[in-house]
Structures are given as C-alpha cells and as structure tokens.
Amino acid sequence: MIDNMPKVKVGIVAVSRDCFPESLSVNRRKALVEAYTKKYGAEDIYECPICIVESEIHMVQALEDIKKAGCNALCVYLGNFGPEISETLLAKHFEGPKMFCAAAEETQGDLIQGRGDAYCGMLNASYNLQLRNVKAYIPEYPVGDAEDCADMIHDFLPIARAVEGLSNLKIISFGPRPTNFLACNAPIKQLYNLGVEIEENSELDLFEAFNKHAGDERIPAVVKEMEEELGAGNKKPEILEKLAQYELTLKDWVEAHRGYRKYVTLTGKCWPAFQTQFGFVPCYVNSRLTAQGIPVSCEVDIYGTLSEFIGTVVSQDTVTLLDINNSVPKDMYKESIEGKYNYTLKDTFMGFHCGNTASSKLSFCEMKNQMIMARSLPVEVTNGTLEGDIVPGDITFYRLQSTADNKLRGYIAHGEVLPVATKSFGSIGVFAIPEMGRFYRHVLIEGGYPHHGAVAFGHYGKALFEVFKYIGVPVEEIGYNQPAGVRYPTENPWG
To answer: Domain named L-fucose isomerase C-terminal: which ranges (predicted)?
Structure first.
C-alpha cells in the first residue's frame, strides 16, 4: 500500500468544574484510558497527564501538551460537570477533529461526594460549542462508564481519519468531462469549503508525461506484478507494458504534484480520445491504484473520487466507484433471487463500471477490452479493463456531492451484493438495497445525483453519516433508504 491513509492519535483531556472534586475527573480519566487500552490497545490514544482542565490557563497547557505528543484528534472528557468556557475553548483552538463524551455515575453507594453531574455538563458544553461555532462529534448517547466511553472514542477514529484526511487532501484531475456527459459536473467551491485542494490538468499534460515514461526501467517489474495479479485472467498480455508505463506516470505525477498536501486522489478522462491516443483504456490501472491506497475515479468525476477517499479512510479498505446501471431482469430475479433472499425486484439493480474495481473485490477477473467502446473503435485500442463479478457480501452505497447551485449533500444506503451470476460484462454485481425503488426515485432522482456511486465493502453508514454531518452537510440533505411506511417528502401519499 502507498502511504496515503490518514492516521489519528486522539489526545484524551479530562476537564473538571472547580466546585467539583478534581479527583472525580482524574480517576475517571485513568479508568477510561485503562479500559480503552485493554480492549483496543494504546496506539491510537494519548492520555494528557499535565492537568485537569479547570481554567483557561489549564486549557493552554493541555493544548500544548497534546500537540507536543503528536495528537491530531481530541477527546474532551467530562469527568464531572466540566467548565463550559475552558473546555469549549480547548476544542476551538485545537486544529483537528474533536469529540466530547461524559462520565456516567458509577454506583448508588456514592452519589454525594462521588456524584459528577456530567450528564448535565454535556448540555452546557454542547450549547457553548454552538455559541462558538465549533464543530465536534458528539456520540448518539455521549454519557457512559469507562468501557462505554472507550467504545465511543473507538467509534470516533474513522470519523477523525476522514476529517483529518479531507483537510490535507489534494484531488488531481486530468481533462474536462467527456462531451455530452454533464452528469458528473459539479462546482468545486465546496471542495475549498471542505479544505480540499484541487489541481486540474489537461489530457495533453498527461499524454506528454506518459510519453516521457516510454522505456522506463521500472516497467518490467510492474508488468510482472500485473501478470501475477491477473494469473489465468491475463487475456491481453500485449497491453501490459503500456499499462505499466501509465501506472508509473500517474504515481510519479502524484509525488511531483502533491505539494504540501499529505494525501492525493486522482480522476481522469478515459474517453473518447484517450483510447486512440494512448492506445488502451485506463480501467485496470485505476483499479490497481485504488487498491494501493490512491482512489481513482473515471470520467473526471471529482466528487466521485472525493467520495472514494472518504470511504477508503473510514473502512480502511479498498472501495470502488460504479454506475447505478441497470435493472435486474425479471427472469433472473425469479430464478436466482425470489424466495431465496428477502428482496423485491425493485430492491435490486446492477452496479457496473467498465473495469475499475480492484481484483481483490472481484470473485474472478479477466483482462479484456471495453466492449462498449469497441463498438465504434478498433478493438486493439480498447484493451485494459478488468472484468468480473463483484464479491458477494455487505456493502454501503454512498456519495458526497455538490449540487448545481453549490450546496453540499450526500446519501448513504446499506445493502449487499448477492451471490448471483450477472451474466454480463465489466466490473459488475447484482446489488440489493431494502426499499431501493423508493430510494432511487425520491433520493437519487429527486436529489439530482449523478449515476456514479461509491461502494464500501461492509456496513459503514453510521460513521459516514457522522462524517457528513461533521463536514457541514445539513442533516436534511443526507438521504438514506427509508424503511417501508416512512414517507419521503416528495413521495405521493396515495402511491
């Protein structure tokens, strides 16, 4: 894997109201750290020992300590009621993702000197965060014992990785979108609002760099990697040298152009002139880079690669980007799905792209040519797709998008890839999402989303929802597949 994945270290800072026993916060912090370490290890956290924050001076001391310790995420832990000014100033001045959680009372036998009232303190903390316009993650139920709060901090890690990653991300694009392909067009202003940089280049810039890599001494080693990965699926061996040349071109471009940014994603124009000039299609290389930790979207889908990056850092696994492509035929549904899985025909669809899904996420794979492009171009310039059925299992279908009027919105849906043969071509799978038909109509269509959706392999909706909220997507603009009986605002009440 290329080092393109954010890592977070959470500084745990306990706070105390000066009219409450400081020992409550000290002992509860120690118990929290002990519980976390026992269950998850100590690698992701740091216990701030300098002080219990009771004042603004303590806040400064704690802030300096966790920065010195290399913390890039913060947990403000209310061991008791807490000082609403100092604790929220700490969050304000900490540059990075932050969360708040609070200690529950421990025993009925110690509710006089041992009562901390952090249940109450969380209300004041949240109110002061809003007064100061400070974003912070607050768990669904933010009050708990040491073990509960340890779990809350662990749940915060993927959220923190995503927020940290976005603030240090550069998206590199090549070429404008293909003509007659407005679907992935979106204003880039929201990227800047998120703290994301973008570098837009011409296809000609990329073509020049590619040609300069002809004969690169590293090409044979990359070809060997590809041969080992493809195995018996290596149906187009004659194209591997060019694909290796292209992969090295992109990797070198990333290193030369990342600038001051830690993380990079790519998006490129893959048709109509790409094939005739480069002599291949880039799908397989896109899949390899995504598997190596640099997500790549096709068709210059800038918010597509942004979505892929978020899913990658949340799941810490390879993701893919697919067209929400075609319906499942009735005869396939009746033969392979009906009575075997609890889905209606309208709950199912096929997710497809030409060949950009990593081999590790395919049940089988073969290097082929792009059939759709080959209908109008010589077959030999359309080689380079990685085709196969997507592995069955749980998935999260999601996307972060800027609308035409520059508003940030997103959607998230849990579902699965069914173990059903697609009998088709490309990187493709039979997907099932509960109430997909209604979600398709009243979120995807009504929300003006493009046909590209990101796919994470597993159920990550909880973390993605919190990421979207944290980065500023209004809650009402986060669509999801509502269960039967819960009507969408645009849904006809008479069906």
So the answer is: 352-477
What is d(CA 324, CA 333) in angstroms, rounded to the nearest whole number?
Answer: 17
Instruction: Quote the CA–CA distance of 387 and 367 in Å, as a whole number.
Output: 6
352-391, pLDDT tens digit by residue? Answer: 998 899 999 999 999 988 888 878 788 888 899 999 999 9
pLDDT tens digits along 198-228:
999 999 999 999 999 999 999 999 999 999 9
Concatenating the DSSP letter of every residue in 16-67 gives --TTS-HHHHHHHHHHHHHHHHHHH-STTEEE--S--B-SHHHHHHHHHHHH
d(CA 54, CA 65): 15
Report angle CA 180, 186, 192 to the nearest 5 degrees: 150
**In whole angstroms, what is the distance from residue 490 CA to residue 216 CA?**
56
The pLDDT tens digits of the residues spanning 118-150 come to 999 999 999 999 999 999 999 999 999 999 999
Give the domain CATH number at 307: 3.20.14
Domain count, the chain: 2
pLDDT tens digit string along 393-411?
Answer: 999 999 999 988 889 999 9
Among 140, 166, 192, the domain boundary falls at 166
Residues 6+ apart with CB under 8 A from 358: 287, 288, 290, 291, 318, 320
Looking at the structure, do residues 100 and 51 belong to the same domain, yes or no? yes
The reply to whether 84 and 223 lie within a common domain is no
Range of the domain at 434: 176-480
CA dist 470 → 97, 137, 138, 355 (Å): 9, 7, 10, 33
Domain contains 26: yes
